[in-house]
């Protein structure tokens, strides 16, 4: 058994599983979230749908080490929860595809912001800055439009009440896209400030 690992017996319905839990971080003792991750792999029940019970008490503090919760090798853990239906899994796949697409928005915003920082730090000739800033403004507006389209598409997904895993994932996805949309607003505001500075400087030189 790996150093720091904890071996427990998992009771799930009529099934019994011997599982070994170790931390994903080197030289760290396993936490409750590590156990939930292993249980999800073994049973197919998503972490957010698991109800973990130890000695009659519900385990909920995911950031707590197992040792603090009193869980050690040889203990028995009961889990209540069920796998997603094939129909829900199909919807989850759609959401995962959305997640991959929205990650590209994050990379795009990082690139735009990096270019803006470069212009601010004087890495571009003065006579080229205005055109470059206008180009960045178009890019950030295009990214904001993509964010809005994603939100519309995600909102259009019809998810039954009992698709709790799907609803949980969709909520997180919407939150991420809204964060990217807010970043678009901040970056666009910074671009406009730089354009105003350039215009003011040009007017001052003209005078």
TrEMBL record:
One of its GO terms (molecular function) is adenyl-nucleotide exchange factor activity. Residues 6-86 form the Ubiquitin-like domain. This is BAG family molecular chaperone regulator 1. One of its GO terms (cellular component) is membrane. The lineage of its organism: Eukaryota, Metazoa, Chordata, Craniata, Vertebrata. Residues 95-153 form a coiled coil. It comes from the Eukaryota. Keywords: Chaperone, Coiled coil. It comes from Callorhinchus milii. One of its GO terms (biological process) is protein stabilization. Residues 108-188 form the BAG domain. Gene3D superfamilies: BAG domain, Phosphatidylinositol 3-kinase Catalytic Subunit, Chain A, domain 1. The gene is bag1.
């Amino acid at each position: 058994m790996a150093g720091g690992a904890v071996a427990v017996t998992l009771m799930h319905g009529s099934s019994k599983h011997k599982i070994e839990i170790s931390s994903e971080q080197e030289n760290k003792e396993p936490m409750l979230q590590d156990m939930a991750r292993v249980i999800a792999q073994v049973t197919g029940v998503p972490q957010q749908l698991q109800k973990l019970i130890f000695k009659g008490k519900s385990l909920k503090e995911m950031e707590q080490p197992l040792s603090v919760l009193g869980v050690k090798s040889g203990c028995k853990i009961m889990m209540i929860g069920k796998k997603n239906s094939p129909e829900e899994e199909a919807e989850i796949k759609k959401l995962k595809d959305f997640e991959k697409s929205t990650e590209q928005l994050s990379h795009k915003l990082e690139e735009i912001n990096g270019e803006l920082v470069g212009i601010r730090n004087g890495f571009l000739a003065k006579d080229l800055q205005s055109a470059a800033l206008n180009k960045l403004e178009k890019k950030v507006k295009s990214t904001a439009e993509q964010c809005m389209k994603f939100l519309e598409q995600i909102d259009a997904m019809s998810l039954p009440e009992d698709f709790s895993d799907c609803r949980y994932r969709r909520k997180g996805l919407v939150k991420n896209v809204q964060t990217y949309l807010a970043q678009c607003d901040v970056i666009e505001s910074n671009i406009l400030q730089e354009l105003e500075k350039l215009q003011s400087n040009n007017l001052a030189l003209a005078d």
